Amino acid sequence: MTVLDATDRAILNRLQDDLPLTAHPFADVAGDLHLSEADLIARIDRMKREGVITRFGPFFDAEAMGGAFCLCAMAVPADRFDTVAEQVNAHPEVAHNYERSHALNMWFVLATEDKTGIALVADAIAAETGIEVLRFPKLQEFFIGFRVAA
After folding, report:
1. Is residue 31 part of a domain?
2. Does residue 16 sit in the same domain as residue 70?
3. Which residues pair with 112 in a beta bridge?
4. Pairwise CA distance, residues 71 & 87, whole Å
5. ∠ CA 123-127-132 to the nearest 5 degrees?
6. Residue 86 burial (CB count, 10 A)
7. Which of 28, 43, 57, 141 has the most crowded Cβ, counting Cβ within 10 A?
8. Per-residue pLDDT at 88
9. Helix, coil or strand: residue 81
10. How many Cβ atoms are within 10 Å of 32's Cβ, its own excluded?
11. What confidence score (pLDDT) does residue 17 get?
């Protein structure tokens, strides 16, 4: 298990606020944290490799850019969960995927260039896995502002 030091925690907390839109955003954040740019990038890379963080990157609003996204769920047999997760995650349109303790135990978000793409990818996943992909399109948008204190 990875042990985070105070600097790792400061990095995680700082990067949840924003990444400056400047020519050298990592250098700017590193300066805020009294680190070198190389040290900041190395620590982010290490935390990603060790599974402390699963992803580091921007969050784009697909709809605002003319695309589409949809929350999807599947009822995956426990003995096939890891295999199905690999099949689902192999699609670049899958933004994230997580397990729930529920009959619908696999939930993921599809982000595509248009609404037609949602159906194409969901249908492809269903065909590959033999499991129905339920689709829950957004009816109303809410901004939660989720943060996790490191």
Report:
1. yes
2. no
3. 68
4. 17
5. 70
6. 10
7. 43
8. 96
9. helix
10. 14
11. 80
Amino acid at 125: I
* CB burial of residue 112 (10 Å; 0-12, 13-18, 19+): buried
Domain count, the chain: 2
pLDDT of res. 138: 82
What's the confidence (pLDDT) of residue 146? 65
Q: Pick the catalytic residue: 24, 34, 91, 96? A: 96
**Are residues 95 and 71 part of one domain?**
yes
Model pLDDT, residue 22: 94
Kindly report each contact of residues 92-99 with a partner whose C-beta sits within 8 Å and lies 24 or more positions away, as own/partner.
Answer: 93/117, 93/121, 94/121, 95/69, 96/54, 96/55
Q: How far is CA 70 from CA 17, 66, 95, 109, 125, in A?
A: 25, 14, 10, 6, 14
Q: How far apart, in whole angstroms, are the C-alpha atoms of residue 13 and residue 15?
A: 6
* pLDDT for the residue 41: 96
CA distances from 81 to 3, 16, 60, 132, 147 (A): 29, 30, 28, 14, 28
E-strand ranges in the chain read 68-74, 94-99, 106-112, 134-136
Active site residue 34: no
Residue ranges for the chain with pLDDT beneath 70: 1, 143-147
In terms of domains, do 15 and 79 share one?
no
Q: Are 70 and 136 in contact, with CB atoms under 8 Å apart?
A: yes
